[in-house]
Amino acid sequence: MENFVVSARKYRPADFKSVVGQEHITTTLQNAIKNSHLAQAFLFCGPRGVGKTTCARILAKTINCEAISSDFEACGSCNSCISFQNNASFNSYELDAASNNSVDDIRNLVEQVRYAPQKGSYKIYIIDEVHMLSTAAFNAFLKTLEEPPKYAIFILATTEKHKIIPTILSRCQIFDFSRIQIKHIAEHLKYIAEKEQVAYEEEALRLIATKADGALRDALSMFDLIVTYSAGKKVTYLDTIANLNILDYDYYFKVVDALVEEDISDTLLIFDEILKKGFDGHNFIVGLSEHLRDLLVVKDESTVHLLQVSDSAKQRYLDQSKQASVSFLLSALNLANLCDIHYKTSKNQRLHVELALMKMTKLSHAFRLAALPDVEIKKKA
């Protein structure tokens, strides 16, 4: 049986042009190589799974490439590139600061820096999770980072920039990696699905991209999970919501329909059905808040593009938004937000959500009463 290689490793970018959603970083690095403006210390920071270590490795490989291309990408076929790909390069070193964070570890690294590269122009040192270094280790590293030999380049990567001491930050050229947009993750998943000959539904890929919260590595892990679950190598919407424990957005459409119709009974019955399926009340109220926000977004043509769903789902949002006023959506969103804030401190969490839903069903009635003259309100009372 062949060893399975996860998509996050199999499709890890090997050059700058294949890095997803970080064009501001890759363009700057390519221009730095082109114009020979390479800093001697880089700090790559940003959330997990966005390409920090990947870009560090690509930069390390490209700097020493013996036959760099016209667009300043590593050729991938020279001796330097091949040895780098086989983890046999003597010019590139990686240190995991999470498990090598003592003064002695940094002293060993500083000792290595003294020796010039035997082949190639640069020696590159990649320190991952650099925020895990102890204060003493940071201080031991300062002098070398400030005045390194001309052949040494340091690339530091971290998810927690605020934990790095200011004296280290001041010595680095800082690159802030952003969360990858949903559309870019979905497009990349589509590319991989086609390469692997996996049948897919675009709504499922978009759902995976949304759930990944900007981390491409997380999206690829979820994609592998759904493909493994399905016997026939396919990624469907139903399989995705079942495996990722995501509530089908049909329920949110049903709930809002009941709220607009002022039907308390139907609203509570739908919520009861959701709980019986094993979903948490807190996740439901957070999802309902997002749904109400999306309905507000499509109320104005200028903000429709903020809704990142498939075309078929977008039409459903447009249709439902016509049934609810902006005042209703804003008030319901406010009630859902308050419910979310106080959910964990509530003694009876189910009742807490139900009370918020019952208040939402009476919003339209309250607006009608507010619009009546005072005399008519007294008569109705």
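The above is record 1. Record 2 follows with the same two-line structure.
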Amino acid sequence: MREKISDALKTSMKSGDKARLSTLRMINAAIQDRDIANRGAGKPAADDDEILQILSKMVKQRQESAKAFEDGNRPELAAAENAEIAIISDFLPRQMDETEAKAAIGEAIRSTGASGVRDMGKVMAELKAKYTGQMDFGRASGWVKEQLG
């Protein structure tokens, strides 16, 4: 994952794509921040799963910002956030649609033996372990509650 981001950064430098270059540098900085935090906690450098979590969080932050800018009648700032989302999303696995996500939730419920809402934490933990970067966990939690209902 790091190599893929690094290669994209070099390509952006060579092509002069300033917007993409800026976003890729921001991604690298976030990964380095996680590496430093991990080092301080005696953990190894961020692995691919952690990098996916970082990228997912960055997308979610930008989606929230874009919505706030749209609500505040600032379309040019919302467009900039959406452009960053597109660049970051290039490094994330394909997002599951609702049908796929609900099927994965059903499988997680079966594999964890969850029988009620009190088991929701186990189901969410399994989903996060298997589908980081592929599923919107905010929406998934509602579907888990619905299925455990």
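The chain has two domains: 2-89, 98-148.
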